[in-house]
């Protein structure tokens, strides 16, 4: 047992052993098939990526249904698929507890954010935040926070790609894994450069369909094996593992008071963070109207909800059919639960399919992240700050595309560098930053008349800096066996999740900054923003080709 | 301020010429605003409190949550599944509400504002691409 329990998100850990179950040749060929099909789709989509609205927002021509699928594709990462199935298989109830936060969070987007955001913004989160505040300081802050969130998320995905490969394709050497990270990075750059938002969206739609279908088939299969009796699966899971505690809360987070508080902190970041993730927010601009934005969230909620219900069955199914000992002993450990279960059910072919879907998942997620970060840099920093709003759209597009290449290279380097490190905390950190740096400012600027530039800047920088500083001084970095620097101990903050401090603090900073600022914001802008956000008058229209 | 900027919402031709403060003060808009807020705010608070309550119960009252309800299914699992039920339920309720109550009001207002905008630009004899 580790001395200081750290609550982190389930994620892909590096495999220690090289043996794989299943047939790597099948896994690789199914995966290559996916890459080939999506590349064709992306190239076809590239025929209409001439303008900024095409490149950043797919011409705003996606339907709510399509966008909902793409949101699900963006949101359901490899960590949530492999990680949550594994977490439920090993920690039972506490694994399930994770998934609920990821899911319930979507109500924030549905009720408070999606429609007004679509009505008032254009391409990025900063469009909405700077609508009635001073452009430059707010755009810079929003862009920095956007890039921080996407960078943490991207790094976690890229590092995970290397680990997944050892598990699924049987490549265990460090050079081999680095090569795969390079390939993932290059494919991602090609997707985004060639297809823009339209191509990226199609990759996510295809991936979401494959993932949800694959998981649904496995769920029905398992339920069928147990006579469609969920209670029987639970009983078998307890029996296989000789652990009646599997069904009760507390196996992972109930260890002590610190770990309990840590989960509350994580739960807050999850439920408030999803609606502040810049790559999710940007998806709302790809539909023509606010009503379609609403429809996309409804689709996303339906698919994501079903997905997490399926993983509940898969997790306990894996516990029942495979057992914790075999899962822990397999290469990839906790993450091997889903692939092992697929192998148990349908042999090499089903495992190959599931493995390829997991891998496709990484590609789709990193592509979505890269386009978001590049849009934010080109649109918010380059055009608004460096060029003071006077850049030619073609030039801006060129900057965006260059940024994608730079981001691709950085994430390849980061992914290779992070190999062997436990980077599971990065996804949790991304959610914590989104919940503290982004969400309070979004809510204030949409719903609080007296919100000011100073409030926005304090809240965004405060939330970002606080989250990162607390992580640096947490057991994630030092003071525990599982820390990044196990030898040192400067962990003055006892929890691995900053949310419980950073989220209330940034709400408070936003409030204090606004009430102390004497300079008033333009009341005309406030009127315009409020009227536009609710009525949709003057909202950006779809591009017709 | 560069009004030609592609990022400045000022530059959006669609909203040019609309008297937003007057629109904001209008009775119709105030009604839409309060219809919207009085529905989404309480609902958002309610689901956040319900989620927090569930998490706190799971973390601090494991014995209670371990109570068997049906076969091997315990109270924790039932409440967890209820989180799914309420989330789906709130989604359905909001969509119904938005379609019936928000959309008609918002559409009427938008059309009225867009009509006033066309009228204004005609009287100013402005040529817009």
TrEMBL record, chain A:
The chain crosses the membrane at residues 25-46, 67-90, 96-117, 138-156, 176-196, 208-238, 263-285, 297-322, 349-378, 399-418, 424-446, 458-478, 490-512. GO terms for cellular component: plasma membrane. It is a multi-pass membrane protein. It comes from the Bacteria. One of its GO terms (molecular function) is acetate transmembrane transporter activity. It is found in: Cell membrane. GO terms for biological process: plasma membrane acetate transport. Pfam families: SSF. The keyword Signal does not apply. Keywords: Cell membrane, Membrane, Symport, Transmembrane, Transmembrane helix, Transport. Belongs to the sodium:solute symporter (SSF) (TC 2.A.21) family. This is Cation acetate symporter. It comes from Kocuria tytonis.
TrEMBL record, chain B:
InterPro entries: DUF485. It holds the Pfam family DUF485. This is DUF485 domain-containing protein. The keyword DNA-binding does not apply. The chain crosses the membrane at residues 39-61, 73-95. Coiled coil: none annotated. Keywords: Membrane, Transmembrane, Transmembrane helix.
